[in-house]
Amino acid sequence: MAVKPAGSSNNELFKWAKRTAALVGAPPAAGSVTNAMLADMASPRVKARGTAGTGPPEDIAIGNGITLDATSLRTAQQMSITVDGSGLKLSGDATSPGNSQYYGTNSGGTKGFFALPAGGGLTLITSVAAGAGTTVTVTGLGGYKMFFVVMRGVSHNSGVAQAFRVELSGNAGSTWGTPLSPNGGTGFAAAVLVSGWFMISRIDQTNNQLAAVSTMAGLTSEDTSSRGPIDALRFSFAAGNFDAGNFDIYGLK
C-alpha cells in the first residue's frame, strides 16, 4: 500500500503511484517468462530443487552415470552398456537368451548371447589294441588341447626291461617329435603288464611347445622339437614288440 507523502494532495499521490508502477512493472503473466529471462547457469547443470522443503529453484550438477548434451539428459553409455526406450541393456541383449548361454563375443567380434562351446569334459576318442608290432600309431586327434592316455595291460616281448616311449606329431604322422618317456625312462620287464595313465598337453601356447606329463612318476618330459597342435600319437618300447594290452585315448577340447 502506497503511503501518502506529507503535505501532498490526493492527486499528487495518484501521480506518484502511477510513476512507481511504471518503473517497477507489473508481475509477468503466466507462461510469459522465457529461458533467456532466467539467470545464467554453469554447464552442465539442470534447474531443479535439491534442498528439502519448498523454495526457489536451484542449479543442480549432473551426477555419475548421467550425461547432458545439447538435446537431452540421458544415461551415460560405455563399454557394452547401451540404452533405449526400455532402459539400460547390454549391447546385443536378448529378451530371452535361453539356457546354457553366455554373454560375450563370437568369432567375428559381435557382442551378444551365444551357446556355450562344446566340450568341458573328457571325451573318449578311440581305443586301440596294442597288437604285435613295434609301434602303435593313433591319428585323427586334431582339435584337442589335452590328451589322457590310459594303458590297460600293455606289455612287450623283449628279453630285458625296456622304457615305454611316446612320440608326438602335428602333421598326421608325417614326422614325429623327440620320444618322451612318461615315467622318466624306467624300464618295464617283459612279464609286467603295464596299467596306468598319463597326460599329454600343449603347455606353451606362445612357443607351441608340446609336453607329456606323467602321473605314474610325477615327471615332466618336454618335446621342443614338435611345433603346433597335436594330431597324432605313436607308442613304443625302446626295443621289442608289443604283445598285449590296449590304449584308450581321451581328449579335452
Fraction of residues in H or I helices: under 10%
CATH class of one domain reads: Mainly Beta
Determine Rg (CA atoms, Å): 42 Å
Strand adjacency order, main sheet: 9-18-11-14-15-16
End-to-end Cα distance, whole Å, is 92 Å
Secondary-structure arrangement, i.e. CATH architecture of one domain: Sandwich
What's the CATH topology name of one domain? Jelly Rolls
The assigned structural class equals mainly beta
Quaternary structure annotation: single chain
Which regions are unreliable across 5 or more consecutive residues at pLDDT < 50?
A: 204-220
> Got a strand count?
18
Number of helices: 1
Query: Roughly what fraction of the amino acids lie in strands?
Result: 35-45%
Name the helix and strand elements from N-terminus to C-terminus, one letter apiece.
HEEEEEEEEEEEEEEEEEE
Overall residue-averaged pLDDT value: 78
Please tell me what the overall shape is: rod-shaped
3D architecture notes:
The chain has 253 residues and is mostly beta strands. Helix content is 6%, strand content 40%. A 6-stranded antiparallel beta sheet has the order 9-18-11-14-15-16, with no helix packed on it. β7 and β8 (111-115) form a beta hairpin. The longest helix is centred in the N-terminal third of the chain and has 15 residues, at 10-24.
